[in-house]
Amino acid sequence: MFGFKSKNVDESTRQAAHAGSWYPSSEKKLRSNLESYLSTPSNTPTFSQQSLPSSLTPSAIISPHAGYSYSGPTAGATYTLGLKSRLLNPSLPPLRTIYVLHPSHHVYVPGIAISDCSTIRTPLGDLTVDNQKQKQIGEQLTSLGVSVQTMSSKTDASEHSSEMQYPLIKHLIGDLPITIVPIMIGSASQSSLIGTVLSPHIFSPSSFTVISSDFCHWGNRFQYTPFIDSKKISQSITELDGEGMTEIERVSPGGFAEYIKRTSNTICGRCPIECFLQAAAIRVGEGKECVIKFVRYEKSSEVEDSNDSSVSYAGGVCYI
To answer: Which CDD domains match (predicted)?
Structure first.
């Protein structure tokens, strides 16, 4: 049952559990690293058929969530073309809410889970969670039969896919009165219902959305080794990821779901991505603009033999 329990100050704050390991805990060093990543140029994937829209507004991004030493350049280039560009446009309504749609790596979530915290701690300062919007979305989904759970601060803090987005967000928004709405999406079985509820929220003129996902996890340690007999494993991984990114650029939730079923590609944020595509498809069905463009792609390493491993990082921007 959806609801919020009373909690003390410590319980209401999501701690920066991965600071000092996945990214620097020092404010000075972290800001320096983030500025470096944010200056990373895009390297538009060759598969992409989209051009960067000049007349549309960045509304959402798909950003990786590995340790910054691996995913930082891809995340930085994506945030620069997405959130930073949106914040710097004076002709647009002020940004008030940032939704963070992220997967679950450690707990089973049959639908969605919402953080029990009202504050998110980062080495750069705190972010404020909009608990009212969380409650509203939770109640809307519950009324449609979608499972909605409330996470404890401990469960929330163990999940890196959300945390890796928070320092980048805080660095860019500074002290602006912008609230955060984190939503953990653990299943795509009801993606149509989730997308229907999310669409008016995330595509509001005063909203921005971050979808957190890495792409292919290849290697024995991930129990995913297609192309094992290929002499060009790394190229095959790129082509595999490119096929999925093409379905995303087409704003095709059905095509993306079929692609995941057929390939079993280990895209850890596949559920948030599919729910976002459902929300975007509603907008397209209403005759409104919605263009998704991937702007950077790279891998943690180039796989040369069966003993290697690799994780792919892809950055996409949604324009409306």
So the answer is: MEMO_like (cd07361)
3-state SS, 125-139, equals: EEEEECHHHHHHHHH
Pairing status of strand 310-319 against strand 217-218: antiparallel
Round to the nearest angstrom and report the end-to-end CA distance of the chain. Answer: 35
Lowest-pLDDT choice from 80-84, 105-109, 135-139? 105-109
Domains, the chain: 13-319 (3.40.830.10)
CA dihedral (34, 36, 41, 44) positive or negative: negative
Q: For 286-312, what is each residue's pLDDT tens digit?
A: 999 999 999 999 999 999 888 999 999
Residues 6+ away with beta carbon under 8 Å from 211: 60, 61, 62, 63, 101, 102, 269, 272, 273, 276
> What whole-number distance in Å separates Cα of residue 273 and Cα of residue 143?
23
State the Cα–Cα distance between residues 314 and 302, nearest whole angstrom. Answer: 15
Radius of gyration (Cα) for the chain, nearest Å? 18
Mean pLDDT, to the nearest integer, of 201-225?
97
